[in-house]
Structure formats: C-alpha cells, structure tokens
C-alpha cells in the first residue's frame, strides 16, 4: 500500500511500487530474501535448507527468481564471489566475454576471451567447461543487469514525470543514446544460427520476464493489463530496440524512441 517502505542493504524501497512492478532481484541473495519475505512472494527459507547453503533460489515469482534451463534456478548470486581488487579468473572471463560478445557477437573465439581475460586455459575450462556454458552465463548476466536497470529507471521516471506508458520510451531513449548501445543482446543472440539450445531458452525466458513486467506496469499505470495489450507494448518496445540499432541514419536511435513514445501514447488510456 502507498507509503509503506522496507529498508534493505541501505536502500529505502516503496513496497507497493515494488509489488506492482514486479521488480527483478536488486543486489544480493540476502536482500532478495528480505524483500521477497516482506512482500510474501516466497516462503521464509530455513537456515539449514539447501537454497541458503548452496546459493539456490527459493523464490517462486518468476521476476524474483528467473528459473532458467541450466543446472539450478538462476539468482543474482550466480556471480562468482571475489575481492573487488582481485577479481577471480571466472569473474575476469565473464567480464571479458560479456563485453566482447555484446560488441562483436557470439562468434568471438575462446582463445581471444582467454587472452584478454589474462587467465590460463585450464582456469577457463574449470570455470566454463564449454563455450556454450559461457554464452549462457553471459546472457544470464545481461538479463539481470538490463532488467534491473530498466525496471529501476522506468520506476524513477514514473515518480518524476507521472504514470504513463511513455515512461517506457523515455527509459529506452536514454539507453539508445549511450555510446555503448549495440541493440538487444537477446535479439542479437537469436540472429546467431550456432546459438546453443540452452542459450535460446535463456532468451525465451528473458522475453517472458519482460512481458510479465510490462503486464505489471500496465496495471500500475491504470491501464488494461491484458495479454493482448501487453503483447502490443512488448512489440513496440522490442521494435524500437531493433530500429534504434540500425545505422542507416544518424538519428535512428532518437527517431526510434520518439516513434515508441508516439505509439505508446495511443495506448495510454486508463480503463
């Protein structure tokens, strides 16, 4: 309900906004569990249960814990713990692959990832037995980072400018204007014919998670939260991302954001 807040890891979070927008995991496993319990999304984990011992995720809400087709449910804790000053080889590999795959595509070779990560080949294969495993890990990280940013940015813009579907386009426009914008890593991945099945499933789960978040936001802004409307909004969002990536005109990104805002405004009629 409006005005209620919880405090986690030094952050003050509006409970109602968090509830209706179905925000993805924010930072750490302890913070996830605290938020989830406060909102009654998940059962309180027992101190001895496997999820707290192994880093598994007890959540049942798909935006609190996105269950991907890998060895276990994927939570924000999947990043390998290491000192900020001395990243582990696994973290360096993931950081490097995350950058290279987004900038140049998934055809970047393992030898180059190993070289730029400055790790031994044995360290690479201990962390990621195959390139397919690394691709899945990169897509998982991209999902977590992008979803967290997008949800929080739309939430902030909604607070600043008022409830409207146009806030989605506002956030997209900011992303499109970044120097490192290379389009959607998930759309880019699907264009790669050699993408492994497990990675394709990660992309599909990302799409479903985004659609669920859009459904929640439709309800939050007082619009019809139906599958049909969510599909329309999702199509506008995804189409704008693809259009912004094209380099056939210098203002392609800005034009895509404006077009998305115009189309979303037409749907912006409270029920």
How does this structure look, described?
Residues 109-128 bind DNA. Pfam families: TetR_N. The chain has 271 residues and is mainly α. It has three domains: 1-77, no CATH class; 79-129, Orthogonal Bundle (Arc Repressor Mutant, subunit A); 137-271, Tetracycline Repressor, domain 2 (Orthogonal Bundle). It has twelve helices and two strands; from the N terminus they run ββαααααααααααα. It has helices at residues 15-21, 29-38, 50-54, 89-104, 110-117, 121-127, 131-161, 166-176, 185-190, 197-220, 227-245, 252-267, and strands at residues 5-8, 11-14. The protein has a two-stranded antiparallel ribbon. It starts with a strand and ends with a helix. The relative contact order is 0.11.
Largest sheet: 2 strands, antiparallel
Give the strand line-up of the largest sheet. Answer: 1-2
Low-confidence stretches: 1-83
Which class best fits the helix and strand makeup? mainly alpha
What number of domains? 3
Q: Taking Cα atoms only, what radius of gyration do you get, to the nearest Å?
A: 19 Å
Binned, the helix content reads 55-70%
User: CATH class of the largest domain, please?
Assistant: Mainly Alpha
Gross geometry: elongated
CATH architecture of the largest domain: Orthogonal Bundle
Strand portion = under 5%
How far is it from the N-terminal to the C-terminal residue, by CA?
21 Å
In brief, what are we looking at here?
By secondary structure, this protein is mostly helical.
């Amino acid at each position: 309900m409006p005005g209620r807040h919880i405090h986690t890891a030094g952050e003050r979070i509006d409970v109602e906004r968090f509830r209706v927008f179905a925000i993805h995991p924010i930072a750490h496993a302890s913070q996830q569990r605290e938020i989830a319990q406060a909102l009654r999304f998940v059962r309180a984990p027992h101190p001895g249960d496997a999820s707290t011992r192994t880093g598994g995720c007890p959540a049942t809400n798909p935006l609190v814990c996105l269950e991907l087709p890998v060895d276990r449910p994927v939570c924000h804790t999947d990043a390998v713990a290491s000192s900020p000053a001395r990243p582990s080889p696994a973290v360096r590999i993931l950081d490097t692959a995350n950058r290279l795959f987004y900038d140049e595509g998934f055809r970047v070779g393992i030898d180059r990832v190993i070289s730029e990560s400055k790790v031994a080949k044995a360290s690479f294969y201990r962390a990621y037995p195959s390139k397919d495993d690394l691709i899945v890990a990169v897509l998982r990280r991209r999902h977590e980072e992008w979803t967290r940013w997008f949800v929080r940015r739309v939430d902030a813009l909604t607070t600043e400018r008022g409830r409207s579907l146009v806030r989605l386009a506002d956030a997209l426009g900011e992303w499109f204007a970044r120097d490192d914008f290379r389009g959607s890593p998930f759309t880019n991945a699907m264009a790669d014919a050699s993408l492994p099945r497990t990675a394709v499933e990660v992309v599909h789960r990302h799409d479903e998670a985004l659609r669920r978040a859009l459904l929640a936001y439709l309800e939050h802004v007082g619009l019809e939260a139906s599958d049909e409307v969510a599909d329309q909004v999702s199509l506008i969002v995804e189409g704008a991302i693809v259009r912004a990536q094209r380099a056939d005109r210098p203002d392609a990104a800005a034009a895509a954001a404006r077009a998305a805002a115009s189309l979303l405004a037409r749907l912006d009629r409270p029920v």
